[in-house]
Amino acid sequence: MDKRRSDTRERIRTVAMELFGERGYDKTSLREIADRLGVTKAALYYHFRTKEDIVVSLSEDLRRGVDDIVEWARGEPPGRERGEQIVLRYGALLHGLGRSMIRFWSENQPAFRDLGIGTGLRYEFRELADLVAGPDPAPLAVFHARQALLTISWSLSMMGDLELDDAQSNAAATRLALDILARL
């Protein structure tokens, strides 16, 4: 039963992201999400009461994923290998969440600000970059660490118009991010 509920929640989130991408967050209603899914609005309410609840659940997945990377990294010795692993894990996390979800986040900053999500994610992003840069880094090392992580993020949010599948995009972004890390 829990597996079926989880699958349904995931389908709702996927369809919501599709509609948010097609119509925009503000112009998409729960009724439209339910219609696209072929379920009643009441069935949708069982899982999510509002479209804001859908967005919050998606951001919680990202936050948990970043927290897992941070927790892992704190247990590893600082250095090039840890930095590379952080970038690889961050890429896997974002690409696992999906291109449409990441693009939605980058294009709907006001919604995230209104829900109070953006500040926490920015803090976690900086913490990841600090772990990549290592203890007592020079400002330029932190800059390069942030740019490496942004390379991964931007490969999902800004490159959707290119004829690259997710695996190609992830591989290219990872190579670029690791090239940037080589400058640390």
TrEMBL record:
InterPro entries: DNA-bd_HTH_TetR-type_CS, Homeodomain-like_sf, HTH-type_TetR-like_transc_reg, HTH_TetR. SUPFAM superfamilies: Homeodomain-like. It holds the Pfam family TetR_N. The keyword 4Fe-4S does not apply. Residues 29-48 bind DNA. Keywords: DNA-binding, Transcription, Transcription regulation. Residues 6-66 form the HTH tetR-type domain. This is TetR/AcrR family transcriptional regulator. It comes from Nocardia jiangsuensis.
